[in-house]
Automatic annotation (TrEMBL):
Cross-referenced CDD domains: S49_Sppa_N_C
Name by which UniProt lists this protein: Signal peptide peptidase SppA
Basic and acidic residues composition-biased segments: 20-31
Residues of the Peptidase S49 domain: 185-326
Coiled coil location: none
Family: Belongs to the peptidase S49 family.
Bilayer-spanning residue ranges: 86-108
Amino acid sequence: MSDEQQRGGNDSGSQAGDDFPEKGSGDRWTDGPEVAQPTQQRPLPGAESDDAETLRERQRLAQLEMMDRWVGGVLTEQRRTRRWKLFFRLMILVIVLVSVTTTVYRVFLAEPASSLPSQRHLALVEVHGVIASDAPTNAERVIKGINRAWSSESAVAVVLHIDSPGGSPVQSQRIYSEIMRLREQGDKPIIAVIEDIGASGAYYIASAADDIVASPVSLVGSIGVIYAGFGFQEAIDQLGIERRVVTAGENKAFLDPFQPLDDDIASFWQTVLTQTHEQFIDDVQAGRGDRLSDSPELFSGLIWSGEQALELGLVDQLASLEQVARDQVGKAEWQNYTPRLDPFERLTRRFTQTAAELVGLRNTHSPLHFKAQ
């Protein structure tokens, strides 16, 4: 072979080597594992007649729909979480407000016994609404106010500010007895001032005072005892209802409204009412003394106006609270000694009383009432 042919052969080899470098020569295009060519392309979802662009669009819409559902679920969960967070925050806020309100009330609004006025004044105790153990006007609260007013050295008189139709005989008698005890000490006068009504158990309380003042149009009196109920025995017979009562003691259920009230039971119950009425009369006479008239209707349960009550000796003067204050201290001012009700207790009492009235229950535990009807 000639030198020229050898050079030609070498040139051909060099050109081939340049076009196809050997493996391991460091070329990034040829080094690395070999990848097999796909034999068949995966079909895109859609109809066989759809072209590639349509299939890609459908796939994109499917992805967007799935993304929308996911985003919607995330937003729903976030809204639910925010609602619970808001609920718990409101609960915490309510608890904080209740605590702050209670603290402010007890520190600034509830008047302690030591914060008594030093100037001469009337010491007022309110007897408002129905008198009952589970009502704001109960014996414990009223007696506490009376004792606070009585112990105040600057109080020239204790005033029972009455606006009540009466109520429980027991609660009324407890207040009456406490007023009579203080009255016998003779330290300061006790005056009962009747506003719109001072009847039955409320007048029972007023009769223990040294003097009773009323407006000319106030309702005063109703010195009597009442029991009221219903008889449903004929109604349940017509409805075909059987009443089942099991007692130990033959007369234990004698006031059952679903059983007839026979003559013997009615006579017995009348003796109970009469005896209670006599106690009422005796206490009123002990409190009022000779000021009462001898009218046969005085203790019949009738209720009179203030002017009529003055003629019958049930009241001593026709005047107002302002006039009493001017007569006693020279100005129409007074200090309220009635113990304050806790706001939550007052709310609870109001709810309980309303619920009891809705279901037809009485607002006192005793079936007897010193109450104007």
